[in-house]
Amino acid sequence: MAGTSIVGHLENILGQENIQYEITALNLIARAADGSMRDALSLTDQAIAYGSQTVNESEVRAMLGSIDQSYLFQLLEALVANDGASLITQAGAMDERSLSFEAALNDLAQLLHQIAVAQTVPESVESDLPERDALLSLASRISAESLQLYYQIVLLGRRDIGLAPDEFSGFSMTLLRMLAFKPTESFVQQVVPSVKVPAPAQKKTESIALAIDKTLTLPTDKIITTIVRDVVVPKLPQETSIIEHVTDSNQEPSTLPRSEVIQSINLFNGNWRSLVDELKLGLARALAQHCELISYDENSISLSVPEQQKHLLLPNYQDKLISAIAQHFDKKIKLHFSVGGTGDTPAKQIFQEKAQAQAGAESAIEQDIFVQALIHDFDASIIPNSIKPI
Questions:
Q1: pLDDT per position as a tens digit, 34-65
Q2: Among residues of the chain, what percentage have pLDDT more than 90?
Q3: pTM exceeding 0.85
Q4: Right CATH for 3-64 from 2.40.50.180, 1.10.8.60, 2.40.50.140, 3.40.190.10
Q5: Is the domain defined by 272-344 classed in CATH 3.30.300.150?
Q6: How far apart are CA 187 and CA 309, in angstroms?
Q7: CA 334/CA 286 separation, integer angstroms
Q8: Helix (H) or strand (E) holding 329
Q9: What count of other Cβ atoms lies within 10 Å of the Cβ of residue 347?
């Protein structure tokens, strides 16, 4: 049954029983009932008992554990205004009321969905919806790309809030991500430009070759890998071409093959977690951290994503990861994605390490002589959530 039909039935029932109510409270009940009239009637009976024969919005929200929509609209208004101070202030006000930040992220995702629908099909917004004007106002001021980005950030924030030190920091960091990231052309598709280097004059060619020769006469342990990786060396003419194979790793530094030095520095060693840490990634880092290395060679890498994380296999995330790896190795590397695997991803490894560190910290506290004395002498107790590993 549609939400408007449920609200109409509830209005008739409450009107017949002369029970005072607020239309926003009935809308909340209709949403919570999710199309079931029986559930709506049951929730209404609970609301009447909870509110002492009245059905008010604030009491229904408290009963359902839902978040006051005014907080969410204020958060989005601050986001549109690029006002970070207001975002943190609103989050602090929610914390003072002991609201559930996980529920807040869920409700914020629903609100962003409503705004996106209102932006695409304005006539679908019900005329009697209390938040109609606010929804249409935000829909006219937030771009479609920004809405999609905010929605994805909120979903990831809700998923990862359990990994945060506490719910407030997890919620506030999600808000700051929404403030920091703006959709640009590179968000849709990051393309590595191909730079054409003009053929240098003979004199410039000789200077470049001389500079490379001087660099390679240094002991091999003095060659700085980041410089070799980041500096683009123009392609030299045939007569100054670089030897491509190493025959003896102990040969004189002056005869070290130059291309092999560059290539060997950038070869993938199979440590996927270390590679992910080195890559310059934005939101695509979530995909990279939930990938498990299956196999690799010089030109391709096969990765597997756990079934529960397959929603991260968005085309733009894949493109950004491919682009970052190509930039890191100075060559095009094919990435093959699949769903499944053992789940031994960097994200799982980090979670296990944090869990082990937390368990070690709790064990150390429990075994501390001073703490044991406090527990024995003063009947003290340990609050597990207050223990953080160093």
A1: 678 888 888 888 888 877 788 887 777 667 65
A2: 19
A3: no
A4: 1.10.8.60
A5: yes
A6: 21
A7: 19
A8: helix 315-329
A9: 21
